Amino acid sequence: MPRHVQRVMTESRTAPAVEASLTHLAVSLRGVTKTYDNGVMALGPFDLAVRKGEFISLLGPSGCGKSTVLRLIAELGAPSSGTVRVARHEGEAQPGHGIGFVFQEPTLMPWANVRENVRLPLKLGGVPKGEGRARADAALASVGLADFADAFPRELSGGMKMRVSLARALVTDPDILLMDEPFAALDEITRFRLNNDLLTLWRRLRKTVIFVTHSVFESVYLSQRVVVMTARPGRIQADIRIETVEPRGEEFRTSTAYSDYCRRVSAALAPSYSGQSTL
Ligand SMILES: Nc1ncnc2c1ncn2[C@@H]1O[C@H](COP(=O)(O)OP(=O)(O)OP(=O)(O)O)[C@@H](O)[C@H]1O
Description:
Elements: E1 3-6, H1 16-21, E2 25-35, E3 41-51, E4 55-59, H2 66-73, E5 81-88, E6 99-102, H3 114-124, H4 129-142, H5 158-170, E7 176-180, H6 188-205, E8 208-213, H7 216-222, E9 225-229, E10 236-241, H8 250-253, H9 256-273
Helix pairs in contact: 3-4, 3-5, 4-5, 7-9
Bound molecules: adenosine-5'-triphosphate.
GO molecular function, one term: ATP binding
Family: Belongs to the ABC transporter superfamily.
Organism: Bradyrhizobium yuanmingense
């Protein structure tokens, strides 16, 4: 039975009705603020509820606290105030368990082959080598890299390295996938291809995905909801549901509905940039 682990918080009273509805949520942030040691107030107050299996994007100007949100969810830091809750299964009480993290940089170990890179989280978790290798191979197959398990990172393109990074995040079979601008450094064609592959994976695995991007187009294409943040300290500027025929594909990318949503999201984003230099 899933249970909810409540983490560092200064205010713990929650209305019973809200508590009950948490069983449908993967992640809940309520009244969260984050001020770093240097005095920078990065976030808040910030409220976000993400349903299990939902794909949402966080969009906002540079420095508005998007990565901070992901780090708080992953317990790579504690909120200054407010509540962060993450749904977990029994046996996943340790920080970070049940969560996969994909960063903009694939951060692969250059001296290890692709299989060993993907196996790393299992190795750190004490999974026996044979089982770990089999699971790493399965994760690699899921991202279309079954034939590259013995290759080294230097032999791979940028897109392939990102697939390895995704396989490494999936190898522990997390319920929640946090993705911090994973495709930002890739060329457009590779990015489009990875967008489609990610959607295919998401439809198959139904993980909860929280995806950070600077791209209005990418956020609308991928997400069921686009959450637009204000400039720092980041709060919710708009929460826009993207309703369209599923599964999405290239016809959605060229549809009027897609461009209408992009316009709507851009308009919601505009106030967050007001007063900021565009240079
Ligand atoms: N460890 C830290 N110590 C001090 N300040 C930090 C730290 N991490 C982030 N910040 C500051 O907090 C603010 C929010 O940072 P964060 O990385 O969450 O923003 P972001 O929206 O992800 O930015 P970007 O889109 O540029 O990646 C920024 O002003 C950043 O400089």
